[in-house]
Amino acid sequence: MSEKNNTILKMELKNGIVKIKLRPDLAPLAAERLETLAAQGFYDDTPFHRVIEGFMAQGGDPSGTGMQGSDLPDLKGEFTRDESFHRGMIGMARTMDPNSANSQFFIMFDDAPHLDGQYTIAGQVIEGMEFVDQIKRGAGANGMVNSPDKIIKMSVIKE
C-alpha cells in the first residue's frame, strides 16, 4: 500500500475527470482494495449500475447487476464513528453481512448520516464532483439504471 493519505484515484467519466483521495486512516483494508483493483484495471469500463437521485451512485461490478465483485476475498467491515457520510464520500457497498464488501463502492450525492457506523468510508472526492453529479440516474426505489454510464478508466496517481 502507498504512503498514508497519499494515494489518489483518477476516475475518467464521459464528462470529465474525478479525483478520489483514499482514506487508509479510516479504512486501510478498503483503501488498499480500491487501490489494488484500480491499478489492475478492474474498474475500467464498469457501469454505475445503481444510481439514486439525492443519495448515491454505485459501481464496481463488471456484470452491472450489483451481484458480483472481484476474485479477491471479501473484506472485514471497517466502520468509523470519527467521520460521516457526506457529499463526495466514497463508501464500500456490501450485502446485509457487514463483512461482505469486495469491489463495489458508492459515491455520495448528498449527506447520509443513517449510513454512519454501518458502512465503510474508503475515500472522498477531492476534485470533479460536478462530473459525478452528471452520472445517469436510475429508476424506481432501487435505482437500477438502464444503459448506465461507465467508468472509462480508473488509475492510481500520486500527488
From TrEMBL:
Coiled-coil ranges from the UniProt annotation: none
GO function terms (MF aspect): peptidyl-prolyl cis-trans isomerase activity
Protein keywords: Isomerase, Rotamase
EC number annotated for this UniProt entry: 5.2.1.8
Enzyme class: isomerase
Pfam families: Pro_isomerase
Cited InterPro entries: Cyclophilin-like_dom_sf (IPR029000), Cyclophilin-type_PPIase (IPR024936), Cyclophilin-type_PPIase_CS (IPR020892), Cyclophilin-type_PPIase_dom (IPR002130), Cyclophilin_A-like (IPR044666)
Annotated GO biological process: protein folding
Domain PPIase cyclophilin-type: 16-159
Catalytic function, reaction form: [protein]-peptidylproline (omega=180) = [protein]-peptidylproline (omega=0)
Family: Belongs to the cyclophilin-type PPIase family.
Function: PPIases accelerate the folding of proteins. It catalyzes the cis-trans isomerization of proline imidic peptide bonds in oligopeptides.
Record's protein name: Peptidyl-prolyl cis-trans isomerase
Source organism of this protein record: Commensalibacter intestini
